[in-house]
Known about the structure:
This protein is mainly alpha-helical. It has one domain. The chain contains three helices and no strands. Helix 1 crosses helix 2 (about 25-35), helix 1 (about 1-20) packs antiparallel against helix 3 (about 35-65) and helix 2 runs antiparallel to helix 3. The longest helix is centred in the C-terminal third of the chain and has 29 residues, at about 35-65.
Amino acid sequence: MRLGMTATLLGVILAELYATSKGIGYYTTHFSESFEPQNLFALVALIAAAAIILNEILRRAENYFGKWRE
């Protein structure tokens, strides 16, 4: 389940790089093309924090709902 979340998050970001005029992917491209590294690093840190938080939520849900496997 957590592996699927990682692939989904990556897919959404990659799709936004090419298909939208707003969103995380758009701003990633914009900040890298306009040489704004402080904004780009902040965006990357935000994406990483969101991935860590989602991973932790799913890990706890797996532990809670997967007690029957023990």
